[in-house]
Amino acid sequence: MPGRHYYSKFIPPSLSMSELICQKLDNDATDLLIDKWLERPHRPDAYYDWFQRIRERRHVVNANARKEQILLWNKGGFVPENIFTRTVDTGRLIPLDRTWVTHVYHHKNMSRLNMMPVIFSMLPELMLLRGMHDRGCDEIYVIVTDLKRPEMDEVTEYFKYVCQNASNGPCKPSVEQKINHDHMHLTHLLDGQRRTPCFPQLDLTLRAIMHEKRPPFIVLFSHQTMSYSQILFANSLFVPSKEVYHDFPSGCPNPGCTDNCCELIRFPKKGLETASVLCHKRKVRYRYGRRVKAKEMCNWIDCHVCFSDDMAQSGHLCDGGSEGSVVGSSEGSEGSIVEEPSAPRILGLVCSRCKLVKYCSPEHQRMDWEEHRRVCTKPVDA
Question: In the chain, at which end, N or C, are there fewer CB atoms within 10 A of the end residue's CB?
Fold first, then answer.
């Protein structure tokens, strides 16, 4: 029939074909969960101790200070608006207090499950991943399953292989044969264990989300007591840095547990070494035609100026951005900005105190100061 969609392992599917139920948790629900997490009775715990260690790691002045991933808690109490992280897509330094909408896909047999605890169980990880992305993370996608650990590993390897070998058009006959074999194997395996959703629906929904919604990552959540949830990253650029998250808590409810076998969500503490990445090559076209490219933009959240060679040649800069003006005192006591000494004026103005952010103009620095002042401190000498 004309216009009818057919399920195929080699053609991007449509979400309208999915039989899974989508439950949406809005920004208010996320705010409520964050408030409950901050008020949890067992504080201090492993997460709080980890953020305390982050607070002790003062940033050092170096040439890559504005390009590397960084997490800072310099001032104030333990609340998201005082903890800042570097975004991997725009290079901005912004707080963790931004909320998101969560789309939870689950089988109809799981309708009685309350999805709020699902998100609460991995809230710290989602907060950090949300903070790492300036754009594309206003909505987070979660697929709820009941897979056990070995099954989750096999499903993860299947999706990695498919996305890396068959997501950009026709593939080799040997690749097609392997995908067909693995798909049939997983279908029979999960059907034999009576897993929900069935593997074809899981495969269809995940690939449809990646194709239509294009998120930086997607979470496969397992509510099995002896399993973990998996984060699938769309590109290696979106993976948390090993230097920052190497000692991140495992996610076990027991604050003193360090056994990775108890983790509730497989957070890539060792960076690319342990991350599940659907596309490893930075220059390859992913998300069906869209390229992944890190940028360095003006730290004012509503500014669209990008500091790059292309922008410099076009001269597209906000008014006053090429003047190198200074705001506040000459010592930077008010978070003043000074012209970057080793770069042309057109490439932006650097905060003279922390040297972690850039602005296209003094006006945008003043507009961003109310937020940036919560993290702006002098760095430690290298």
Answer: N
